[in-house]
Amino acid sequence: MSILVLGLGNILLMDEGVGVRAMEAFDAAWSVPDHVSVVDGGTCGMDMLDLIASHKHLIAVDAVKTGAPPASLTVLRGDEVPAYFKGKLSPHQLGLSDLLASLRLQDEAPESVTVVGCVPMALGTGLMMSPEIEAVIPRMVTMIVEELARLGVTATPRN
């Protein structure tokens, strides 16, 4: 059972890069078995098609627009995931939506897709995230660990 943990976002647009930053924090703190890939997907172009298709489970970590207050965290699974694309936050989300649609048409989509998300505060140009968003990254890392456990995978601390 191969699993892909895919950090998404544009780190040049402040909080829009929270998915990449959370994935980096997870990768720095936790070790996973060989059948789990941890990847910086950035803005997720069509070149990710083969990578996503080669995994049975996808955990995408991203900034999301849910209508909740900034810095709110959410986990979307299964049928909840398409609703996430209705409120597009940034151009890269269309890329992920297109990738998943293409994979479904080719009958190569992952068996399950989960989005671990955070509602951003600021999307201006800049490398720094809002302090409130930076503060929730440890909780996002915990959410990734919990999602892996839900899939039967034990992540171990790197300490």
Automatic annotation (TrEMBL):
GO terms for molecular function: aspartic-type endopeptidase activity; enzyme activator activity; metal ion binding. GO terms for biological process: protein processing. InterPro entries: Pept_HybD-like_dom_sf (IPR023430), Peptidase_A31 (IPR000671). The keyword Hydrolase applies. Keywords: Aspartyl protease, Hydrolase, Metal-binding, Nickel, Plasmid, Protease. Gene3D superfamilies: HybD-like. Pfam families: HycI. Transmembrane segments: none annotated. It comes from Azospirillum argentinense. This is Hydrogenase expression/formation protein HupD. The keyword Hydrolase applies. Belongs to the peptidase A31 family. Not known. Could be involved in the processing of hydrogenase.
